[in-house]
């Protein structure tokens, strides 16, 4: 899905029950927006029950998005066997005032194993958080060598929203899997991660090479 202008009612793009087995889905260079903002679930891209595996990838890159949330994942997300789910170099502006508006909104559990990666990097976000998971029942579960979640080099234009909105109980990181965060900027200052993530998270600061 390349270089399109798509405006939808509650979502611009909807992926429903997708299995990406060794292939790829690319969403790049698009302008995605919604016209409704009543329910708080309006999203530029809505993804239901996606399973990415065996080196497959779901890549959302260099898009301009306007909605309550940019990427809304629900129904269960699984990434395994060196699969990749990536949101990178996008510009997102929240179209209204919801307390949990986010670049990536997780409304279900996300499971990564077998060298899988979830990467959220290089994005520019206005009046929204970067990552949100509001329900204590949902988990981000990581296991296996090479399995990694990365939140890096993202920029929030102002500090009206927290960088991330989740609870330590939402995350289960089983070594040697890694959850890595670094060099994110909020209102032109490096983000403080105090109280946002559990001790297992690896943090690197701006100016360090990782």
Which SSEs are present, and which pair or pack?
Blueprint lengths: L4 E4 L2 E6 L2 E3 L2 E5 L2 E4 L8 E6 L2 E3 L3 E5 L2 E4 L1 E6 L2 E4 L3 E5 L2 E4 L7 E5 L3 E4 L3 E5 L2 E3 L2 E4 L7 E4 L4 E5 L2 E2 L7 E2 L5 E3 L4 E5 L2 E2 L2 E2 L11 E3 L6
Parallel strand pairs: 1-5, 2-6, 3-7, 4-8, 5-9, 6-10, 7-11, 8-12, 9-13, 10-14, 11-15, 12-16, 13-17, 14-18, 15-19, 16-20, 17-21, 18-22, 19-23, 20-24, 21-25, 24-27
Antiparallel strand pairs: 25-26
Organism: Trypanosoma cruzi marinkellei
Protein name: Dispersed gene family protein 1 (DGF-1), putative
What does this structure look like?
It is a single chain. This protein has strands spanning 5-8, 11-16, 19-21, 24-28, 31-34, 43-48, 51-53, 57-61, 64-67, 69-74, 77-80, 84-88, 91-94, 102-106, 110-113, 117-121, 124-126, 129-132, 140-143, 148-152, 155-156, 164-165, 171-173, 178-182, 185-186, 189-190, 202-204. It is an all-beta fold. The chain has a single domain (5-204), classed as Pectate Lyase C-like (3 Solenoid), CATH 2.160.20. An 8-stranded mixed sheet has the order 1-5-9-13-17-21-25-26, with no helix packed on it. The chain has a 7-stranded parallel sheet with strand order 4-8-12-16-20-24-27, with no helix packed on it. Strands 2-6-10-14-18-22 form a 6-stranded parallel sheet, with no helix packed on it. A hairpin with a 2-residue loop joins strand 25 and strand 26. It is globular, with a radius of gyration of 16 Å. 39% of the residues are buried.
């Amino acid at each position: 899905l390349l270089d399109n202008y798509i405006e939808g009612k509650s979502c611009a793009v909807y992926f429903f029950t997708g299995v990406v087995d060794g292939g790829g889905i690319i969403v790049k260079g698009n302008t995605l927006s919604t016209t409704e903002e009543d329910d708080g679930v309006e999203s530029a891209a809505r993804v239901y029950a996606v399973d990415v595996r065996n080196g497959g990838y779901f890549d959302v890159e260099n898009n301009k998005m306007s909605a309550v949330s940019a990427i809304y994942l629900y129904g269960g997300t699984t990434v395994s066997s060196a699969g990749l789910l990536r949101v990178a170099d996008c510009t997102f502006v929240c179209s209204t005032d919801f307390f949990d508006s986010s670049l990536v909104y997780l409304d279900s559990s996300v499971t990564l194993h077998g060298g899988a990666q979830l990467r959220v990097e290089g994005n520019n976000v206005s009046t929204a958080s970067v990552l949100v998971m509001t329900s204590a029942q949902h988990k981000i579960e990581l296991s296996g060598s090479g399995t990694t979640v990365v939140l890096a080099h993202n920029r929030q234009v102002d500090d009206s929203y927290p960088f991330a909105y989740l609870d330590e109980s939402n995350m289960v990181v089983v070594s040697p899997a890694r959850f890595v965060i670094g060099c994110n900027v909020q209102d032109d200052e490096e983000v403080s991660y105090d109280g946002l993530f559990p001790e297992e998270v690896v943090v690197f600061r701006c100016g360090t090479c990782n």
